[in-house]
Design brief:
Layout lengths: L6 E6 L8 H15 L3 E6 L11 E3 L17 H19 L3 E5 H15 L3 E5 L3 H7 L10 H12 L4 E4 L2 H11 L6 E3 L16 H11 L6 E6 L8 H12 L5 E6 L4 H10 L6 E5 L6 H5 L4 E4 L10 H7 L4 E4 L2 H7 L4 E3 L4 H11 L5 H14 L2 H18 L12
Parallel strand pairs: 1-2, 1-4, 2-3, 4-5, 5-6, 6-7, 8-9, 8-11, 9-10, 11-12, 12-13
Helix pairs in contact: 1-15, 2-3, 8-13, 11-14
Length: 408
Amino acid sequence: MIPDSLKIMMVAPTSFFSSYGCHVRIAEEADALRSLGHQVTVVTYHNGGAWNGLPIQRTPAIPWRTNYEVGSSRHKLAFDLLLGAKVLEVALRERPHIIHAHLHEGALVSFPAHLLSRAPLVFDFQGSLTGEMVDHHFLKKDGWFYQPALRVERMINNLPDAVIASSQRGVRLLRDNFGCNRERVLVVPDCVNAHIFRPDTLSADEKRALKAQLGIPDNRKVVVYLGLLAEYQGTGLLLQAARELLRTRTDVHFLIMGYPGAEVYRAQAEQIGIGAHTTFTGRIPYAHAPRYLALGDAAVAPKVSASEGIGKVLNYMAMGLPTVTFDTEVSREYLSHWGIYARTGDVGDLARALSLAVDERSRPRGNALREHALKHYTWEWASKRIVDLYQTCLQSGRAVVPLPRPRA
């Protein structure tokens, strides 16, 4: 008999919590599941912050790497070995009903605990492992290790009882490139808490005060970016596009929020002559994100990776911001025909799209995007879908899941 309140062990092969990317998905999934009455514990690396009273079990530290590091690192092997041991310890002690593993490392290190505890293993797939390693320059497609890495990824993708993909593109990738049975893959897109992210977060006076605090002239249109700063995120391309745009209009300011490398990109902005029209805040705590996004007249997510999700656009959508991205399948899946798209990697076309986004005529796009987010991308809907998957796994072993409902 399946209990009404499930014990869920989430495995996060990262320094949870930090204010970006997969951390946000993990945290908001956990909150949504807890709101339905389920018990969630996160097992993660030694470092990281607290999140909303969520129980967190951490690995011990490794002596030679005690500080947090964003992104891929050669030290992750040691972190993951410790994580696998911790996952097994917690699984055998607490006997969860479900092991919900995020990212490929999470699925791999959770597999022994899945076998020994007999708890179904659900893998939250957020993009291709080999694709990400290519984006981070850890692999080359024509290198010696690319094909072996693909075989390892194929093996990991087929270990779990069920896989959650964050996009329809992810489903096709799993099916066509890695041989996953489509009936074991469920689409649960990145979602957003639209009660927190909303256009009326700040009054007009509060906006003026925060702009003044950040040194942003009140008469400028503000383009906001919030996320990691990195070349695969398109940060360098964004600065080049900003330079192109500012050659023809000077009423635009770029508020670039995130880390690491804020100082490097600030220096780059100064070097190309746009320092007076850019503000770099560094890391912004996730709880403060709505206040800063509320300063935006438009938002941008210039991610060039085609293999990863782009969850930040959900926050932009919920804030009612006209949103610019490169023209990728995942972007169109979220933004539909209300997005403003540029040709991938084309700086000039990105500048054109940004100019269109800050135009007053684009404001209805932002309103439509918020309505779209409220209708299709709420965690209330997503969490119920995840629980249905858990129950199917518990009832029948390897899951057979329904096709996702159509989206407008």
